[in-house]
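Q: I'm teaching a short session on how sequence maps to structure, and I want students to see two examples side by side rather than one. Could you give me a first protein with its sequence written out and its structure tokens following it? Keep the formatting plain so it prints cleanly on a handout.
A: Of course. Example one:
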Amino acid sequence: MTDQTAQEPTMEEILASIRRIISEDDAPAETAAAPEPVAELAPEPVAEAAPLVEEPAPVEDEVLELTERYEAPATESIGDLDVADVAPFPAVQPEPTPAPAAAPDYDSLVGESAAASAASAFAGLAATFQKPEAPVAAAQDMPFVSGNTVEAMVQSMLRPMLKDWLDANLPAIVETQVRKEVERIARNAG
């Protein structure tokens, strides 16, 4: 074990080499151009090992003494401007999302009313497969109770009037619209 301790550098030697490297780094750039060869240190006997304390190289930089008190420069007058008159920055508003693009207009074979008539015919067909509703009493016979809302009362009163109007006007509307569509198709074909 004594052979091993004799070959290993002591703590003082390690610190001395670190100090030497630091002092070399602080040396001027001229000495950095010519690097010194690194000499290996021969281990000193433990009995002769004395703590090596090297003083750091004196720093030749000029030291700034702060003995005078700092005074802020006088503020300049900015005239009649008042600090309160400055408007705050407006809040950042998110960009509005673009409206969805409208569906392209297609040259339809059937007009809107004819499509509506066909849709109502399909709705009527679907209604025939539903359970029949219980007959609704007249509006004056229906007292306001828990399940009877104003909307239900208005719907029951308007249903007969709407039925009469549709019976009187729907065939003429469908006939007119079908004629217009047929004429438009004939003009485009000819």
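Q: Perfect. Now a second example for contrast.
A: Example two:
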Amino acid sequence: MTNAHARMSKPLVCLNYQRGSFSLRALLLLFTGVLLVAVLLASMGASYGYFRQYVSSQLAGHAQDGATAVGLSLSNAIDGRDPVASSSLIDAVFDSGRYLSVEYLDHSGTVVAGRRTGLSKADAPTWFIHFADLPTPVATAQVVRGWQRLGLVNVVSHPGRAYRDLWRIAVALVLSAAVISGIGLLCLWLLLRQTLQPLNALERQAEAIGQREFRQRIRVAGTRELRQVTVAMNTMADQLEKLFYGRARLIQQLRKFNNEDPVTGLASLTAFDQRLKVEVQSEERAAPGVLLIFQLSQFAKFNMSLGRQEGDRLLARLAKIIEHFTSQHADAFAGRRMGASFVLYFPGVSSDDALPWCQSLLADIDDAYSAIANPLAVAVHGGLAPTVDGAGVPELLIAAESALRQAQSQSESGCRLLVPDSGAQLGAEAWRVTLQEALALKRFALWLQPVMSCAELVHGEPLYHQVFSRINTADGALKAALFVPMAEHLGLIAAIDRQLVHSVLAHLRLRPQMPLAISLGNASVKDPKFQQDLLAELKAAGAVARHLWVGISELAIHRHREAATRLVQSLNDLQVSVVVDRFGVGGVPFSYLKNLRLEALRIDNSFTHGIDEHGDNRFFLKSVVDIAHSRGVKVFASGVETVEEFEVLCNLGIDGAMGYHLGRPFTADNHQLTGE
């Protein structure tokens, strides 16, 4: 992984380190629990010591009582001078098992009679006996006959029962301490859990705010201090959310003001021409296509008869028809020129395929226009012109307007195609054969283009590489811009994307240090079977998949919101970065930013092309960069073809850019090969 990519991951490492710290609840539970256990241990120790002392005193008293009884018996009942009688008495006393030793000594200390044994049996563990170590004092009593002193009786009590009783009380103390500690700790845990429960919600809310998610709110509960903190956090989240969405609405309004026609909501004349210039003249995106210009006849009379307000309503209604039409054709886009004149462009489409589509569109427009304009006799005329190699936007517009004039020479509605002298383009069926053959023979090759950071440009370290698929043919490699629109139309884009993902993951297994980004087709995003296959392959790839960035176009997110949301969430679960591709071209509100966890936005070429000469686009992109960064989302630019464009973009604060100025595409299996 590059240094730049590693640097971008540092905040996540810091967050994980913080999560490994002790929680307040654990700290309070540990401290209070240790204190409780210490108190119980001290109480248990004191109780044990008291009982040990009591048992010891009882043991000494028992020995003394025994010695006194034996002494009295030898003094009065039995003649202490008779060894046999003395021995019989001592045997009777000793056999009770309650003494370690019973001895009768004369004046010289000689044992007249006695019994002695060791501590062989005790109902307590040996280690406890060594630990308790009860004292065994010797009790003494004198033996006398009248006024004559005969000797001494020494008695030592057997501590076995004392050890047994002490062991039982020790076990009872330990068990009671354990039960009390357990109950106390459980009650303490429940109390802390209930009391500090708002802290968990506060932590989640703080993390959400750190990730620029302002929707989470906390129920006000808990202690007075926690309630105050909760109210403060909720208030801060409310204010931040209002600030964020206020800025988002401002940027959206600015984008509409600069790039949309206020009446129809279609692209304005300037915005359409700028995007058309990128599609037709840009070295990176240039590909064959078809331009349609159509115009409503008698619209001036319609305005005079029904008023300008009704005219605006008519244009807005027709714009809905046009928007629905463009949504059915991949990458097609439309705009309003002047008055009742509209324009559409179909990238990657032949004129033979575009002609019936346009005739169908104009028929729908004519039906709606005629129904509203009745009794006026109205018509809709359109001119269609394909792109020509070497010709720019002005020539294409002139050709389409010339075809429009031919159509307007007839009174009825219709569409005319201006056929150039440069030869025919591939039709839909020819493209179907070409694409199916490429899929069957796996002729799709990977081409890579570096995405460079402004800071890392000098060192030549890309942030990642954007992947493009091209078809290997005998005449060379066909760029994606040539076949992707038709693949979308023919329903083959999902199959192409499957091969693309498989090839990219295989490449990543060989070079995991080089992160790669792919762009999915709109039809692939909404296809449940493709989503299932994609996620299964990414799961099987394991850690390799984390080096893959998946691009989803902004239009796909807008048109297939539920499917795109499911896909983004599933990719997030696999730790696969998600990029919003072709940002800004669809006029889509920014509301999806609050619901989706995204890694980056990739600004479309139409905004970056000539940005050093368009102040409105600079202001718009600067606002987008600020609001994206405020949510932790990176911003990348595409289609950078001049040093002036790159310098302006870097000054706007973008995180990276790609384009022919920064690095031309090269084949994935040959890092030295570059090409267009």
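Q: What should students look for in example two?
A: Point them to this: The radius of gyration is 46 Å. Also worth mentioning: The domain at 25-181 is CATH 3.30.110.200 (Translation Initiation Factor IF3).
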